[in-house]
Design a protein that fits this description.
This protein is an alpha/beta fold. It has a domain at 7-128: Response regulator (Rossmann fold). 64% of the residues lie in helices and 13% in strands. It has a five-stranded parallel β-sheet with strand order 2-1-3-4-5, sandwiched between helices. The longest helix has 78 residues, at 114-191.
Length: 204
């Protein structure tokens, strides 16, 4: 499955060699890549770029703000972004903290396997696009349903209006028929007078 969008990615690590390695690794892909040297710088980057990031990769062990804390705050800015944690040591407490606070989707240990990381990022972005598409279709469906309801409401109003017009016309026709029937009945009644009565009337 090919990706439809050029996704913005953010790599956060206080070691410049790590962010450079990540940039080199993903440079061949059609991604819009940003880097930051600390958690605070990463948050500033998220806010200043002016567009939603699709995926964020952060190191766990950083001064002042660790990866779990950074990803927790990043989640508040872009809750839909895929969040991946890099850790260079086996610390289950840190991992649980990152999962609970940062809502991370995946984690990798340093040094990572390039092919595995590339594959996991691509699969994550494919799923991200499916979520976006589902959300787009949901919004479109709601809009169309609203428009359809409006059309149905207007149609019902027109039908009701037309029905009232037909009822009024029928009442007018009924009244006109009654008015026409009265003189006709009188004529018919006079025409049905027996001949001897007519002669009697003329004799007088």
């Amino acid at each position: 499955m090919s990706l439809k969008y050029k996704h913005p990615l953010l790599f956060v690590d206080d070691e410049e060699s790590i962010t450079k390695a990540l940039r080199r690794l993903f440079r061949k892909e059609e991604y819009d890549i940003y880097t930051a040297a600390s958690g605070q710088e990463g948050l500033d980057r998220l806010r200043e770029v002016g567009k939603p990031f699709s995926l964020i990769i952060s190191d766990q062990r950083m001064p002042e703000m660790n990866g779990a804390e950074f990803l927790e705050k990043a989640k508040g800015i872009f809750p839909q972004a895929i969040r991946i944690l890099l850790t260079g040591y086996s610390d289950m407490d840190a991992m649980v903290d990152a999962i609970n606070k940062g809502g991370i989707h995946r984690y990798f240990t340093k040094p990572w396997n390039d092919d595995d990381l590339l594959l996991q990022v691509r699969q994550s972005l494919e799923q991200y696009e499916l979520v976006l598409e589902n959300r787009r279709l949901l919004v479109l469906t709601r809009k169309q349903n609203k428009e359809l309801k409006g059309l149905n409401d207007r149609l019902e109003e027109k039908v009701a209006e037309r029905t009232r017009e037909v009822v009024e016309k029928n009442e007018e026709l009924s009244l006109l028929n009654r008015q026409l029937e009265s003189p006709i009945k009188g004529v018919v009644k006079r025409n049905n007078t027996p001949l001897w009565q007519k002669n009697h009337l003329f004799a007088h």
